[in-house]
């Protein structure tokens, strides 16, 4: 049984990080709902493992791109977004802890996460499909950027996914970024929002029980998946990256519906 559990975690992590790197939405947005659906661990444990894996994936990709001087992260503008996301990560994690405490079975909070993930992903998909007919903005205000980062960080931390397709959509709409550039900037924001969220868990909330071997394996496969996803990302154009993002969002919505039925049914 333990071998099957580990195999599921490893397979999901690898596939999620390949797709997450291509789309710039972070592997956590796939890892979290899929493992919830599989029921291999408690919701709090899956949230924590997903968060650590997302940190490792984002750190690996962001750091590598900076070292190779291939980074398209706009440090001045995205840096402000990252600060807001870091603060939002703390608030979002606290909000999730409070929400989980409202239910006799804390795993029921996974249903709340699934509902919000479904709504956020559907809204993002609708925007993505119609964005050619929607005039994007070019926000330059530091205060507005901080607030947008705060909102993205709160949502990502509450859902336990670090960030997601809505990060990419927000960057495209509010800052007129193309999908591939938004991908890199999204991972940069995800790194900060999930880092603060996870640190809060470690320092104040307590780390849920899990096998260290599972986490180490997930991190290693995250690196392998990120590398493969990065190579694919370099070979595709913005249209192809958008198609991948749209397909991933449909998959996430299907899994979210399953999880809503599972936790509330």
Detailed description of the structure:
The chain is mainly α and 265 residues long. The chain has one domain. The protein is 80% helix and 0% strand. Helix 4 runs parallel beside helix 6 and helix 6 packs across helix 8. The two termini are 26 Å apart. The model has no long low-confidence stretch (mean pLDDT 88).
- Give average pLDDT, whole number: 88
- Return Rg in Å: 17 Å
Structural class: mainly alpha
Regions with pLDDT < 50 over 5+ consecutive residues?
none
Give the percentage of residues in beta strands. Answer: under 5%
Distance between the termini: 26 Å
Share of residues in helices: over 70%
Number of extended strands:
0
Indicate the multimeric state. Answer: single chain
Shape annotation: globular
Q: Can you summarize the main beta sheet?
A: none
- Counted up, domains total 1
Tell me the number of helical segments per DSSP (H or I, 4 or more residues long).
10
Please trace the helix and strand order, writing H or E for each element. Answer: HHHHHHHHHH
Sequence-ordered SSE layout with sheet pairings:
Layout: H1 2-23, H2 28-38, H3 43-67, H4 75-100, H5 109-130, H6 142-159, H7 165-175, H8 179-205, H9 212-235, H10 238-264
Helix pairs in contact: 1-2, 1-9, 2-3, 2-10, 3-8, 3-9, 4-6, 4-8, 5-10, 6-8, 7-8
What are the main properties of this structure?
80% helix; globular; 0% strand; mainly alpha; 265 residues
Summarize the structure.
With 265 residues, the protein is an all-alpha fold. It has helices spanning 2-23, 28-38, 43-67, 75-100, 109-130, 142-159, 165-175, 179-205, 212-235, 238-264.
